[in-house]
């Protein structure tokens, strides 16, 4: 290191020391408002930044002064998040963007996020619901205001964003089918988008069980099937999530959760029960019903059959028994 390098380093050190000693929370708010909110990015991306700050980063180091944050603290946040690979990647992106900008603004001398690494994490796959969960969900769906929404997710496998974009005209009651051709983009604002790929546009069969319940709620073709209860407006993906969470809370209480002053103090519903589990369950149901994987790919709206195959590889006893019966029948005819 020559004299000029030392001089530059000393100047940066002096400038850094003269900068206000703000906390991570204070910097996160200023950084988000200045460098994220004003960028030309989608509402979905902006929401991702906010959520990762709120749920993963700030609860751990929000009160820590920016100058005192260490690499090991940031690495521990990634290691202890118990998140999927996708979530860990996003948390890392947010941390590195925030601290890299803090360094360029001379708030910190060194960037503690520069060398953090992704921990070993599972791929972000959802699970199928259990038999007990299915039984309780179907029972609650008969009386809860979000019941038809939950039942539609479970028996069509559509994505939440696709469900909240549906209008009654998308249902062909004569043919007993439902057409999926659009979705609401993730975020707090309502923005309709086309499917990511042509595979997202599809016509789905409606089960007799679901058909009966849709028929009794039928309205004008241009009206939304699922809307916000108080305003009647189209759901955003954020309000649809609240819609599901309200149903899940009622499910928790129905299944025996302990409640004190209208607050659940001891939950019995699994934490990993999310709305997307219903979509995963539908795909598993297709397999158990003997639906060919290429047909399941179409019904699920997957552009790549390898995505469908990740679910179809989940073997259940009845699938294996059916395979045995089919092979026995085949051999008996040889």
TrEMBL record:
Keywords for the protein's UniProt record, in alphabetical order: DNA integration, DNA recombination, DNA-binding
CDD domains: INT_ICEBs1_C_like (cd01189)
One Pfam family recorded for the sequence: Phage_int_M
Domain of life: Bacteria
Tyr recombinase domain location: 140-315
Record domain Phage integrase central: where: 26-115
InterPro entries reported in the protein's UniProt record: DNA_brk_join_enz (IPR011010), Integrase-like_cat_sf (IPR013762), Integrase_catalytic (IPR002104), Integrase_recombinase_N (IPR010998), Phage_int_M (IPR053876), Phage_Integrase (IPR050808)
GO BP: any one term: DNA integration
Molecular functions (GO terms): DNA binding
Similarity field: Belongs to the 'phage' integrase family.
Protein name per the record: Site-specific integrase
Source taxonomy: Bacteria, Bacillati, Bacillota, Clostridia, Eubacteriales
């Amino acid at each position: 290191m020559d004299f000029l390098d030392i001089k530059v380093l000393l100047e940066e050190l002096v400038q850094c020391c003269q900068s206000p000693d703000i906390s991570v929370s204070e910097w996160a708010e200023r950084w988000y408002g200045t460098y994220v909110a004003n960028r030309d990015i989608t509402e979905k991306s902006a929401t991702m930044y906010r959520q990762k700050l709120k749920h993963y980063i700030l609860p751990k180091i929000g009160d820590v002064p920016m100058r005192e944050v260490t690499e090991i603290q940031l690495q521990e946040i990634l290691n202890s998040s118990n998140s999927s690979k996708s979530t860990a990647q996003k948390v890392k992106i947010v941390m590195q963007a925030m601290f890299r900008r803090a360094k360029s603004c001379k708030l910190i001398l060194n960037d503690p996020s520069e060398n953090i690494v992704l921990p070993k994490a599972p791929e972000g796959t959802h699970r199928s619901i259990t038999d007990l969960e299915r039984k309780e969900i179907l029972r609650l769906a008969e009386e809860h205001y979000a019941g038809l929404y939950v039942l539609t997710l479970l028996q069509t496998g559509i994505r939440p964003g696709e469900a909240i974009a549906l209008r009654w005209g998308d249902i062909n009651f004569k043919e007993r089918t439902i057409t999926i051709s659009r979705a609401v983009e993730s975020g707090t604002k309502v923005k309709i988008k086309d499917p990511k790929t042509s595979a997202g546009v599809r016509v789905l069969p409606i089960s007799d069980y679901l058909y009966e319940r849709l028929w009794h709620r039928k309205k004008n073709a241009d009206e939304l099937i699922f809307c916000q209860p108080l305003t009647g407006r189209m759901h955003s993906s954020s309000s649809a999530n609240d819609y599901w969470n309200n149903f899940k809370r009622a499910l928790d209480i129905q299944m025996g959760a302990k409640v004190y002053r209208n607050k659940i103090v001891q939950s019995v519903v699994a934490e990993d029960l999310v709305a997307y589990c219903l979509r995963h369950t539908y795909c598993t149901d297709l397999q158990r019903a003997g639906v060919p994987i290429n047909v399941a790919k179409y019904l699920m709206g997957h552009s790549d059959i390898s995505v469908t195959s990740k679910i179809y590889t989940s073997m259940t006893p009845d699938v294996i028994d059916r395979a045995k019966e089919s092979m026995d029948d085949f051999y008996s005819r040889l």
